[in-house]
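Recap from last week: sequence in, structure out.
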Amino acid sequence: MKDKPWPLGFKSVSPRRLIQRLALFLVLASFLGTPIFASSMQDSIEEAASLLASSELTQHKDRFIIIEVVNLHSKKRDQTAKAIETQLYQALGKEFKDFKLLFLDDSLAGVNLGQAIFVQGTYEPKGKTVTATFQAVIGVRGEAVGQAQVTFDAPKVFQAALVAVLDLEAPELTANQRRAYSDLFRSRLQESKKMRLASSAEVAKMSPDAIQQSYKCSRDECATIIGEQMGVDRVISTSLLVMGQDWYMLSSKVMDIKNGSILTSKTLEHRGGLEEMGVSLNTLADRLVGSEAGAEVEKAFVTPVPQKSVAPLPEEPEPLPEPTLVSAAESGLGAWVWHGAALGTMGISLASSNGAAKSYDSLATENQTLESQYKVATSLTEATSLEEKFAANQAKMKKLQSQVTQFNALALGAGLWEAYLLFLGGEVEVASVRQPGLYFALEPGQGSGDSARLSFSYNW
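Predicted structure tokens:
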């Protein structure tokens, strides 16, 4: 039976076929969803800081901002709260460049608490995510003038490695001298705040000398055994060797308990009497934690790349022929060719978007690992290397995020193209039989400069 033309001249489509096409379109559209990125704490806190940085706050006459973040349930400044405070401190520093930022536990001498800006924050863990709420208040109990709420992936909490510092191995010293110099060495390491040290009382309970005599091993060889029995992650073993009259060598090593490897070691030559040994031990402790500047990094030389000669363009290029519009029927291309082009473009775009998103998540995971390694780094060189790699990954992540957005836009365009082909492509047909109704037509212009005209007609 011949399909009856619709009033506007469109060929009718059977309900069954229309439902099939609609279902196919919905299935294709379901693949166009933007992948969910793991929102990092840094990006979310920077967004919150930009929301808090209103014109009213940036022009506030009192130039002090006091920051405090606590756990919503425990009301305590735990490790996660301190991490959020640090990120917020850095983010607000970019927005309030002329302000002095302080933490609530800092010394507030000279600060007018009635006029300072208090940024009070709370965070609440919700499964794999954390919701942080911030409020800017003028004065201790003033009126709220700004607020922001952000959600980010729950940060992995890494506990600093527990380090046991063994007593100085020095047969030439008396027991009291070794104990005094060992405590001096531990105190210097503790002052650096780069290590979480086990108490000297716990080390004394283990009696390293007795373990060394029992196992018939050197202090370095027995360090892992002592560390395992103490339940620590790392052990620092230091020895004093006599080289001559008033000439000594101090050697210290940081050893990993898991595999017994030496993570770092430092050696120092001491010239002078034993009464001056304290100065050398302090210097050795500083070098061990990376407080001193390391060796200068060699400058990288860039070899200039010679420029290739470019062939000159022709003076008068031949004009390109005017484009000619050819319909699908005239070119011999069937409808399935256009469907294949649309679906192929969409498939390739989605695959590329998915690959970029996976690379983004991989770099995000790697940065979390780098962050944990940075917190337990024992030397400045190692920390600097981790920082550079972290920054390089951040740059790559921003580039990948831009690529995903571009691929998704391309996939969306291909999906809309396919939708057009499904619903309208090949279905527009002017009725061949004159029947009553409203008709329209797109007529080309008469001259080369005239535009096309859309005309309507109604047949009685």
